[in-house]
Specification:
By secondary structure, the chain is of the alpha+beta class. The strands form two sheets. The protein has a five-stranded antiparallel sheet. Strand 1 and strand 2 form a beta hairpin. About 10% of the residues lie in helices and about 30% in strands. The longest helix is centred in the N-terminal third of the chain and has 12 residues. It has one domain. Pfam families: OB_ChsH2_C. This is ChsH2 C-terminal OB-fold domain-containing protein. InterPro entries: ChsH2_C (IPR002878), NA-bd_OB-fold (IPR012340), Thioester_dehydratase-like (IPR052513).
């Protein structure tokens, strides 16, 4: 039997949608509520360490976590990388650094944007501080980091 050729391509419209909204839950919701209020929270892990940003379950024991604790608005750069050309949707429209920052009172670092003019202006161990947006809505974009010029002179 000879193979037939098919001249017509079958098509079916496909619409991918997610017609629901996920709630942030009691832990992440509390974190973002605090951000809207100009505060940062971590959560106490089973071993007593503080995780920031908070998460719902202990990374070692998988136990639910519920004890939210305040953390500082200053911290230390653990590591960083430089962005020469900012892309659409990034926090700045100019070069900047992404940094892992361990906030005072937290044992884990948080990844966030660090506003510096050049790679020469950032280093591991550098003290940084939170810079809050004038209008906050409870999103991670309600703040970024900048060098902590007040405390960096005291620690030098």
């Amino acid at each position: 039997m000879a193979a037939e050729t098919i001249d017509e391509v079958l098509r079916a419209p496909l619409v991918i949608e997610y017609p629901f909204r996920r709630t942030t839950g009691p832990v992440i919701g509390a974190f973002f509520t605090a951000v809207r209020e100009g505060r940062l929270l971590g959560i106490k892990a089973a071993d007593g360490s503080v995780i920031c940003p908070p998460q719902e379950y202990d990374p070692v024991s998988s136990e639910p976590l519920t004890e939210l604790v305040p953390v500082g608005d200053t911290g230390e750069v653990v590591t960083w990388t430089w962005v020469n050309e900012a892309r659409e949707g990034q926090p700045f429209d100019r070069p900047f650094a992404w940094a892992l920052v361990r906030l005072d009172g937290a044992d884990t670092p948080m990844l966030h944007a660090l506003d510096v003019a050049s790679p020469d202006d950032v280093s591991v161990g550098q003290r940084v501080r939170v810079v809050w947006a004038e209008e906050r809505t409870g999103l991670i974009t309600d703040f970024h980091f900048a060098p902590d010029t007040e405390n960096s002179e005291a620690s030098s």
